[in-house]
Amino acid sequence: MFNLVIFGAPGSGKGTQSELLIEEYGLFHISTGEVLRDLIARKTELGKIADSYISKGNLIPDELMINILADVLESNPATANGVIFDGFPRTINQAKALKEMLASRNTKVHAVVGLEVDENELIDRLIKRGQESGRSDDNLETIKQRLEVYHTQTSPLKEYYTAEGKYHAIEGSGSISGIFEKIKSSLSKVRN
Ligand code: AMP
Predict the structure, then answer these.
(1) How many A from CA of 50 to the centre of ligand 1?
(2) Using omega within 30 degrees of 0 as the cis cutoff, is the peptide bond preceding 89 cis?
(3) Cβ neighbours of residue 35 under 8 Å, at least 6 residues apart?
(4) Which of 48, 129, 137, 161 could form a disulfide with 112 if both were Cys (CB 3.0 to 4.6 A apart)?
(5) Which residues partner with 84 through β-bridges?
(6) 14, 29, 54, 115: which to mutate for ligand 1, most atoms within 8 A of CB?
(7) Which residues are catalytic?
(8) Euclidean distance between CA atoms 112 and 52, whole angstroms
(9) Which residues line ligand 1 (CB under 6 A)?
(10) Which of 5, 36, 157 to mutate to test the pocket of ligand 1 (most atoms within 8 A of CB)?
């Protein structure tokens, strides 16, 4: 049983590294961004609400996001074997809620992998991804807002998890496989 949070700014490579980590450790992947995009694609009421925040580059309000996450955890029994949380938590309130949710299942966040990438590289990557993926929030105006939101609301989690002794800073530039090797080596200290 191993619960991992993959953390970093938009464009830091969370999704890409999550895919490799799932294969390596057999964890259940929860990407809150994907969960929300799926709600939008299915044109649900929740999806409409989520879209009004995502398209502007803002965060979905904590209470709503925490309820959505709790629902994903409860409706997927495989999460009991370990989860990789990708894009959650994004605020201190969410981190506290996650701690409670996991504690009620007699578990916890074991480690947080923080992918650290220079701001200019993040913008270049996100613009490129927007051209390829067609994601509505990968345009320059929204990208700038998402980075601003990251700095003000999400980056304080670094200190939060550092204080808990769980934060593993990983230099997130370079080759995908090189970054993955650094993550594995950092996590081997936690898993052994
Ligand atoms: P992502 O795919 O992780 O970059 O998420 C895309 C967008 O979904 C974000 O810019 C937010 O608008 C929304 N979102 C994803 N995860 C969260 C979260 N934990 N809290 C609030 N909003 C979120």
Answers:
(1) 9
(2) yes
(3) 68, 69, 72
(4) 161
(5) 4, 29
(6) 54
(7) 14, 90, 129, 135, 146
(8) 29
(9) 10, 32-33, 36, 53-54, 57-60, 65, 87-88, 90, 94, 137, 146
(10) 36
Element (H, E) at 66: helix 62-75
Tokens, residue 175:
């080759």
* Domain extent listing, the chain: 4-183
**pLDDT, mean of each 10-residue run, the chain (192 residues):** 95 96 94 96 96 96 97 95 97 98 96 97 92 84 95 98 97 97 93 60
As a CATH number, domain 4-183 is 3.40.50.300
Q: How many residues does the chain have?
A: 192
User: Hey, which residues does 116 pair with through a beta bridge?
Assistant: 171
What pLDDT, on the 0 to 100 scale, is given for residue 138?
A: 84
Amino acid 136: pLDDT? 79
Residue 8, phi then psi, degrees to nearest 5: 160, 170
Structure tokens given for 111: 């480690």
pLDDT at 192: 53
Q: How far is the CA of 58 from the centre of ligand 1 (A)?
A: 8
